[in-house]
Design brief:
The chain is an alpha+beta fold. Helix content is 31%, strand content 38%. The chain is globular, with a radius of gyration of 15 Å. The protein starts with 5 loop residues before the first helix and ends with a helix. InterPro entries: NTF2-like_dom_sf (IPR032710), SnoaL-like (IPR037401).
């Protein structure tokens, strides 16, 4: 399937996460797309990727792991259309596993996805950073990062 609509692109986005494929993910984006992470998270190198190749490189580094994708599946997917036909808002919960410990957990996020010309042009990814950090055993790093961050 060649995705044409924002909803179809969202389905491909989810599959790329399940496949743990930075290339499949980046290939969904326009050359000058923007991917934003408004919430702080441990070990995240940037709060924003600008351009398809920066998205590819950022996810390649973030997903460099000897393990398969920690995302085991999506559930509670709710997609909201907006007055703007290019923009959808998706709420997800997903089941994940911490491969280092073997423990499973559930987390979620809200995604604002804007598509134009059968490509994603902008994503704002509001991940549940506390649940992700707890699930991956990284709460101390998150709290340290919060203490050392600039509040402005």
């Amino acid at each position: 399937m060649v995705p044409q609509t924002p909803r179809q692109l969202l389905e491909c986005f989810q599959q790329a996460m399940l496949d743990f494929s930075p290339d499949a993910l980046a290939d969904l984006f326009a050359e000058n797309a923007v991917y934003e992470f408004p919430f702080l998270a441990p070990r995240r190198e940037a709060s924003r990727y600008e351009g398809r190749e920066q998205i590819r490189a950022g996810f390649t580094r973030a997903w460099a792991s000897p393990y398969p994708s920690p995302v085991a599946g999506f559930r509670e997917v709710r997609v909201h259309d907006t007055a703007d036909p290019e923009l959808i808002i998706a709420e997800h919960e997903f089941d994940a596993v911490n491969h280092a410990t073997g423990e499973s957990f559930t987390s979620g996020f809200v995604l604002f996805l804007r598509a134009r010309g059968a490509q994603i042009v902008h994503v704002r990814d509001y991940a549940d950073v506390l649940r992700l950090s707890a699930g991956f055993g990284q709460l101390p790093q998150l709290f340290e990062q919060l203490q050392n961050s600039d509040p402005s």
